Amino acid sequence: MKGLVYPAWDQLEVRDVPEPTPKPGEVVVRVAAVGICGSELEGFATRSPRRPPPLIMGHEFCGEVAEVGEGVSGYRVGDRVVVNSVISCGQCEECRDGQTHLCRDREVFGMKRPGGFAELCAVPVSTLLPLPEKVSPVQGALVEPLANGVHALSLTRQRFPETVVVIGAGTIGLMTLQVAKAAGALRLVTVDTNDRRLEVAHQLGAEPVLNPRRDAVVASVRDFTRGRGADLVVDAVGAAETRRVAVAATRPGGETVWLGLHDDPTQLSGFDVVLGERKITGSYAVTPRDLRAAIGLFAHGKVELTPWVRPFPLTEGARVFRELVTAPPEDYIKALLLP
Ligand SMILES: [Zn+2]
Ligand SMILES: [Zn+2]
């Protein structure tokens, strides 16, 4: 089969690789579509030890069951499926509490084990969810990033928030924006340093859109909310500066959710947190429930992909991946590969 292989640091090529066989409890999925994730671009660009070559990356994928291993029930050859990117052990206390995404022994596809940048990928049956007929392969590959937005919002106590600010108009930011809209947010604000991305966010319903190179973000959000600040601010970048802005733009009693993992140390105003009772919540990965909610949002036409998602054949994978690393394209934000 063909796979997009990462054989050594800084190398990437499409070549023939052996087909996987399912171990007991696994199925082999014929990959229909797989997203290229920002974490993979960054891992490749920075030679991250979290993704050591030789490796086939890819953790955002869907497809069809091609082969069923020993002891697998509930799935048959030909079933359409989407794959949870996190593999959990099922045994630890977090898993038994239903927090499988926080499993102590969790693994992610395309990190230590082969992922979906290939025609076939072996996956534990516990990671599968059925994909309904009306959700396309392109949508199926975006279930995981959409579920990241669902997860972030599900961690908050906001019901019908008046103003939601999303910092970062990359894939996760644009997904979070659309989840917030579907969840009844009355006004959506997006912040990014790239005007092209802000244009897409605007098309998806954000108004106003703010560029920190030009706009004083915190002051603008306060102006816009009669001096109060936003009910909810989601930081989908994860830089020390965006985390600070997220907290400062939140109203007293409001919430901020941190999703991005750009920087680790972060200096904040402790007074803003204590005197304003502002809550900060970390959001990591997704639960099976978030994935099901994301599938439902696609099935009911609540998510728009047209202006910003572009599929490419797997054979162009190395070129597309390198382009995304070196010179982010102007005319799309998210690339998918179709094996
Ligand atoms: Zn990802
Ligand atoms: Zn576990």
Q: Which strand-content bin applies to the residues?
A: 15-25%
Low-confidence stretches: none
The major beta sheet can be summarized as: 7 strands, mixed
Helix content estimate: 25-40%
- What is the CATH architecture term of the largest domain? Alpha-Beta Complex
Cα Rg: 20 Å
By DSSP, the count of extended strands is 17
Distance between the termini: 10 Å
Determine the number of helices (DSSP H or I, runs of at least 4 residues).
Answer: 11
The helix/strand class is: alpha/beta
Overall tally of domains: 2
Q: What top-tier CATH class of the largest domain fits best?
A: Alpha Beta
Q: Let me know the CATH homologous superfamily of the largest domain.
A: Medium-chain alcohol dehydrogenases, catalytic domain
- The averaged pLDDT comes out at 96
3D shape: globular
Q: From N to C, what is the helix and strand string?
A: EEEHEEEHEEEHHEHEHEHEHEHEHEHE
CATH topology of the largest domain: Quinone Oxidoreductase, Chain A, domain 1
Bound molecules: zinc ion
Name the descriptors.
Rossmann fold, alpha/beta, Quinone Oxidoreductase, Chain A, domain 1, 11 helices, binds zinc ion, seven-stranded mixed beta sheet, 17 strands, 339 residues
Write a structural description.
- By secondary structure, this protein is of the alpha/beta class.
- The chain folds into 2 domains: 2-142 and 305-338, Quinone Oxidoreductase, Chain A, domain 1 (Alpha-Beta Complex); 147-282, NAD(P)-binding Rossmann-like Domain (Rossmann fold, 3-Layer(aba) Sandwich), CATH 3.40.50.720.
- Helices cover 28% and strands 25% of the residues.
- The chain has 11 helices and 17 strands.
- Strands 3, 4, 5, 8, 9, 16 and 17 form a 7-stranded mixed β-sheet that branches. Strands 12-11-10-13-14-15 form a 6-stranded parallel β-sheet, with helices on both faces. Strands 1-2 form a two-stranded antiparallel ribbon.
- Helix 4 packs across helix 5 (171-182).
- The mean pLDDT is 96.
- It binds zinc ion (2 copies).
- One zinc ion is lined by residues 37, 39, 59-60.
